[in-house]
UniProtKB/TrEMBL annotation:
Species of origin: Rhodofomes roseus
Comp. bias regions, Basic and acidic residues: 300-309
Biased composition regions of type Polar residues, renumbered to the chain: 711-726
Organism lineage string: Eukaryota, Fungi, Dikarya, Basidiomycota, Agaricomycotina
UniProt cross-references to InterPro entries, sorted A to Z: Kinase-like_dom_sf, Pkinase_fungal, Tyr_kinase_AS
GO molecular function, one term: protein kinase activity
Name under which the protein is recorded: Fungal-type protein kinase domain-containing protein
UniProt superkingdom: Eukaryota
Annotated Fungal-type protein kinase domain residues: 158-238, 326-542
Stored Pfam families: Pkinase_fungal
């Protein structure tokens, strides 16, 4: 957390972020003095009641801004907080709007006017207050802070700071915010905080027991601010009942998409909003080439002629199907959305990109480029662009915290601003987890691999974030009404053009990263690293869904996954995260560490053949590493396993070769660097041409559920159940997995006080599937 926090003198904080009219005289507001004994006492409840009394008088007397109500919520968690991380959390004081929809939601059945009781409702909180009376739990120095040490150490302080980060993350997940404010209170002293996706700016402390007008001013200024100043996104407005009904009743392409739609509507604590993008953000479908054969990128005109004549870029969204659980970073949120002008369901991804990304390298621009150059099996962009506060395009939404942060200790550079960005795509795709059988799994992976190959060979673009959540299944009907399943390669947010690769970039998530990248964080990301990630994705899915030698030993399986996919080390000279030692050994040795029990299946054969390819590659690039031979593979059988015409046309295109001999036992490996897609493509082609009789391996229930409360579940199952157009990579360390207890002080995902290590791996509803 420390690198993401900056301290600012109170007067400068107020002038820069809470500028407004001066506090009226005492004769106007008539605010009674708060009880100093209670403010400095040990009972947090007393402090909350005193602050609510004062704040409500200020709110009621302020003629500016949207009216607010100060509520004591410390005893009442948000009971709409289901299927989410760290449930049962509650703020001490929550300041809410007073319009009927919000009031009906947060009003407590046991409300007591004298104690200002109400429910915590993350969907409606505007400003929140954290109160501490125990010094060990106070996260900030309040009495004698120094310029370089305004944060306190100790477990209690770190726990509180983690809780505050979680509260902010909850608000960012539920609401459409650019930033939000909070107040940290300890025995008559307080610090204001302004949170955004770059971190938080913390004011120096004020002593409001000695001078109560200071805290009056804080609440007066906040009450005087408009919604944009308070951090509410002006491009998001409440949806009308008519629009909501249109979203509810518009046709869905499949029953699964219909289930996703139902899961996003009528969910307690998730109001329906309309997101307004600019018309210039719309992508002309006439410029795009088909996603694949039999799909026309140009859709029929809307039934409503007025909408056809005046198309806009507005989209309705309800409950997210994925949202990152960190208050900082990209903050990806994904939604099943309703496109108002074309009256159809689409997929919307909302996140904060680094400002350093070249304007022509943004994700939507990359998708448009690929789809105008006949690269298939990547999502169809409908609209994409940075988010602006006004139509003139001059006031882009971006973070402010980085302006006050010290240089990054690792990069020695200034922290970049994060710019708000939205992408809408046509396809609502299913997660790879939903594959029906091993043949479909391999087929979907092959289509995604083809997208990767075409992007590299035609446009010299490398994806750089191959993962199980970024490879998706798309079900569609062709022009003749036949149903097909293909794979999509999603989330091109971290992609690089060949000319840019040497310039360095953000590193993708650990689990599917190549062994060489894990061992050497300074290594340039190469084509072979992406190709290796496809192997790790396949191995990962086999570990989860097919019987192998660890199937009946969940503890060993858990240990294997943690060792091979999540192990983290720290390099001594610069403290850079490293890992991948066990993964590296298996790549050099050319064997599958957890073979399937059905060694005769084409799936197991594919795993062995891919291992042989990378064994040869590592022998070429890491020649000093001794390697071991692998068993001889069975010969190719040419018959296909299904009648998928699109796939068969690709497999019979004449571009596949079978000249890569299987490795004989005890035969020294021939070093061959992997410089193109051909060896991997051939291995997939061999497997997919096997007859259907050999693909009888049965898919099992997810084996990772056997260790539900392990880090594997947090980092893997949740990420792998994310949706299509925006799955989110995780950060380098992970929180404890279990759900929060019912006590108010649930363990924080940021309990160590390090916001940079809070995983951007959120929860997903069962019916969703479109994330990066």
């Amino acid at each position: 957390m420390r690198p993401k926090l900056a301290e600012l003198p109170f007067d400068e904080f107020m002038a820069e972020f809470m500028e407004g009219p001066e506090l009226p005289s005492e004769s106007v507001l008539k605010i009674p003095d708060m009880d100093k004994g209670k403010l400095t006492g040990r009972k947090e409840e007393d402090v909350c009641v005193e602050l609510c009394k004062m704040a409500q008088i200020v709110f009621d007397g302020c003629p500016h801004g949207e009216r607010l109500a100060a509520k004591n919520t410390r005893q009442h968690p948000d009971n709409t907080d289901h299927d989410d991380y760290s449930e049962q959390l509650r703020a001490d004081i929550s300041c809410y709007p007073v319009h009927p929809q919000a009031t009906a939601d947060y009003a407590s059945a046991t409300a007591d006017a004298d104690t200002f009781q109400a429910q915590t409702r993350w969907a409606w909180i505007s400003l929140w207050v954290e109160v501490k009376t125990a010094h060990n739990d106070c996260p900030f120095e309040m009495q004698n802070p120094t310029e370089d040490n305004f944060l306190r150490g100790g477990d209690g302080a770190a726990m509180t700071l983690g809780q505050m980060a979680e509260y902010t993350a909850k608000i960012f997940r539920r609401q459409h915010r650019t930033h939000c404010f909070s107040l940290s209170v300890y025995r008559g002293r307080a610090r204001m905080m302004r949170w955004d996706r770059a971190g938080a700016i913390v004011s120096t402390p004020i002593d409001f027991v000695a001078n109560q007008s200071l805290i009056h001013t804080v609440f007066w200024r906040y009450a005087s601010m408009d919604q944009k100043q308070r951090g509410f996104d002006p491009t998001v407005i409440p949806a009308t009942p008519q629009e909501i009904e249109e979203m509810r009743t518009c046709p869905a392409p499949t029953e699964w998409v219909n289930a996703c739609r139902r899961a996003s509507l009528d969910q307690p604590g998730w109001p329906i909003y309309k997101i307004l993008m600019r018309r210039q953000d719309l992508v002309d479908p006439r410029e795009l080439t088909p996603l694949t054969n039999g799909i026309d990128p140009v859709d029929p005109e809307p039934k409503d002629p007025d909408r056809a004549a005046n198309p806009d870029a507005s989209f309705l969204v309800g409950m997210r199907c994925f949202a990152a659980d960190s208050p900082t970073g990209r903050g990806t949120k994904c939604f099943i959305a309703y496109e108002v002008s074309r009256q159809r369901l689409v997929f919307l991804k909302d996140y904060w990109r680094p400002e350093t990304v070249h304007p022509d390298r943004r994700e939507g621009d990359v998708l448009k480029l690929l789809r105008t150059r006949n690269v298939k099996f990547v999502p169809t962009p409908i609209a994409a662009g940075d988010v602006y506060n006004s139509e003139d395009g001059l006031d882009v939404q971006k973070t402010r915290t980085q302006e006050h942060l010290n240089k990054d200790k690792t990069t020695k550079r200034e922290h970049p601003a994060q710019v708000h960005y939205r992408l809408v795509v046509k396809e609502i795709a299913r997660p790879l987890d939903d594959h029906h059988d091993p043949y479909q799994l391999v087929k979907v992976l092959f289509f995604a691999f083809e997208a990767h190959r075409q992007a590299w060979e035609q446009e010299h673009i490398i994806h750089r974030d191959i993962s199980a959540t970024n490879i998706l299944m798309f079900v569609y009907k062709d022009e003749k009404g036949r149903t097909w399943v293909i794979g999509l390669l999603n989330d091109w947010e971290l992609c690089k053009f060949l000319d840019d690769i040497k310039k360095g970039a953000t590193r993708p998530g650990r689990s599917f990263m190549s062994a060489r990248l894990l061992l050497n964080p300074d290594k340039q990301h190469e084509l072979a690293d992406d190709l290796e990630s496809f192997l790790h994705v396949l191995r990962w899915m086999c570990l989860r869904f097919y019987e192998h030698r660890l199937t009946h030993s969940p503890p060993e399986l858990r240990d294997h996954v943690l060792t091979f996919y999540e192990a983290i080390g720290v390099r001594r000279d610069d403290h850079e995260d490293t890992g991948g030692a066990q993964k590296y050994i298996t790549m050099c040795d050319g064997y599958n560490p957890v073979p399937l029990l059905d060694s005769d299946s084409p799936l197991d054969e594919l795993l062995r053949n891919l291992a042989s390819v990378f064994r040869a590659h590592y022998a070429a690039v890491e020649p000093k590493k001794p390697v071991k031979p692998v068993r001889k593979e069975r010969q190719l059988i040419e018959d296909a396993a299904d009648s998928d015409l699109l796939l068969q046309s690709m497999l019979s295109s004449g571009s596949f070769t079978d000249d890569e001999d299987d490795v004989e036992p005890q035969t020294p490996v021939v070093a061959q660097e992997l410089v193109n897609h051909t060896p991997i493509r051939n291995a997939f082609g061999k497997a997919l041409r096997r007859p259907a009789s050999l693909w009888e391996l049965k898919k099992m229930d997810d084996q990772f559920e056997a260790f539900e409360k392990s880090p594997v579940t947090q980092r893997s199952i949740l990420r792998s159940s994310q949706q299509s157009a925006g799955s989110k990579r995780a950060a380098e360390s992970l929180p404890d997995a279990g759900k929060a207890s019912s006590s108010r002080r649930a363990r924080s995902t940021a309990a160590a006080g390090d916001l940079t290590s809070v995983a951007e791996a959120g929860s997903a509803v069962d019916a969703s599937s479109n994330v990066d």
